[in-house]
Specification:
Elements (H helix, E strand, L loop, with lengths): L5 H53 L3 H9 L1 H59 L1
Length: about 130
């Protein structure tokens, strides 16, 4: 019966914690990028709103006010599309990083399993030869 040494236990669980932190740091980086995008979007919206309000207050003609208001809809739609595109890019990049890390970890697990299987096979052969 093989003995599982404490150092093997520490290595096995240590790599599990390292994997957890690696995944978490990728996710937090993605969340941070989304938060930064949201702050930039909010700041831009506030500044544009302030400029629009100043332009509306400075306007003396009702027709000019209505034209400014009618021009907001296409502008808002374009900005919403741009925001959505940026969110999708961030999500896609984060997903790609997670997939790459998963692929690396999966390949490491396969190599470890093959190594342990070959070691177990060699041990079994050695035991049979000795018997």
């Amino acid at each position: 019966m093989p003995v599982f040494a404490p150092d093997q236990f520490a290595v096995t669980h240590g790599s599990g914690f390292a994997d957890c932190f690696a995944y978490s740091s990728i996710l937090f980086a993605g969340f941070q990028r989304i938060a930064e995008l949201n702050l930039q979007t909010a700041q831009a919206a506030f500044e544009e709103s302030q400029q629009r309000m100043q332009a509306l207050l400075a306007s003396r003609d009702l027709r000019q006010v209505l034209d400014m208001q009618n021009g907001l809809t296409p502008l808002a739609a374009d900005k919403a599309c741009a925001y959505t595109r940026q969110v999708c890019e961030i999500a896609s990049e984060t997903q790609a990083e997670l997939a790459q890390l998963t692929q690396e970890r999966f390949q490491q697990a396969i190599e470890l399993a093959q190594s342990r299987l070959s070691h177990a096979t060699a041990s079994a052969v050695a035991t049979r030869v000795a018997a």
